[in-house]
Write a structure and sequence with these properties.
Glutaredoxin, alpha+beta, 4 strands, two-stranded parallel ribbon, globular
């Protein structure tokens, strides 16, 4: 699933336009992103309060077992990196 600071309506439109198959959750209040350390908090940053590109693996109890938070939102992890972590830490 993905989490975005965009509104539910914007995410619905994005999902349809881009044929997204996975669940996207809206966090316009930025509470979840802040709780997971995936929010730009530097007030001097031009992208202040934007979501960072982040990857998390949680176990069945909701405990974070693995995470990567990218400083540059254009830096995507390769699928193999995520799959390897999922095999190691996933439940």
């Amino acid at each position: 699933m993905g989490v975005s600071v965009d509104s539910p309506g914007a995410l619905e439109e994005f999902t349809k336009k881009n044929n997204v198959k996975h669940l996207l959750l809206a966090d316009p209040g930025r509470k979840m992103l802040a709780a997971y350390g995936a929010l730009v908090t530097d007030k001097k940053s031009p992208i202040y309060r934007s979501g960072k590109r982040a990857y998390f693996i949680l176990d069945r109890r909701g405990i974070v077992r693995w995470m990567r938070i990218q400083e540059n939102p254009l830096d995507l992890l390769k699928p193999d990196e995520v799959l390897q972590a999922l095999r190691k830490f996933g439940s």
